[in-house]
Amino acid sequence: MSVLQRLEKQLEGLFEGTFNKMFKGVVHPVEIASAMQREAETHKAVLAGGRVLVPNRYVIDLSPPDHDRLAPYAAALAQELAQSQAEFIGENGWTVYGDVIVEIERGEGLDTGMFRVTAEVAALNEGADSSQPVSGGGGGYGPSHQPAPSGPVLVAADGRQFTVAHGATVIGRGEQAQIRLPDVGISRRHVRVDFDGRQVSVTDLGSTNGTLVNGQRVTTVSMQPGDVIQIGTTSLTLQAG
Fold first, then answer.
1. N or C: which terminus of the chain carries fewer CB neighbours within 10 A?
2. CA angle at residue 222 from 218 to 228, to 5 degrees?
3. What are 133-151's pLDDT values in tens digits?
4. Residues 6 or more apart from 90 whose CB is under 8 A from it?
């Protein structure tokens, strides 16, 4: 299933039976998502080391009639478009500064059914080093590591350490995750790490791109020190505390 097909399915689930009625006769979200993908393609920039940087902020100008009609749903629509664009960027292995942000605005002078997409690179990721792009393990935000952790830790390729707390710890890009990783290939709530004081296990939370442990796709699995979790383009190695 393509990114655009997943977007349409997610929107149908979000708005349930009102989806077709809501977007009948107005600009369709899939058309906007397609235009956003083209903007990312158009504005690619090659960084040192061969990484490809693309815009992370997209402003969608809708015609006044379309904007007024969709205004009650603008926040939810913007969030779904941002997630879809993040998945598209992740699948292509590109790099962004901070999170993917979508803003829906009123575009004066546009006729019904018309829209305009403006894309730019903007360092909007709170808590991240705005001078560094993020894709896999680069840059980031999340719990600060402890000099001498008392429990198991997950160690990223760039040396960042995340203590595995007793109980359940969610890893993802979203605000509800206890460990937040700015990797566009990671879902908002991607994986849960459980620690009962002796054993560590991981459970995929229905993520878009799945979870690998030691190269094998998993749903739920127990882990041992030295095992590697792969989510998006980020690798996390379990080490004993």
1. N
2. 65
3. 444 333 333 333 334 445 7
4. 183, 184, 185, 186, 209, 232, 233
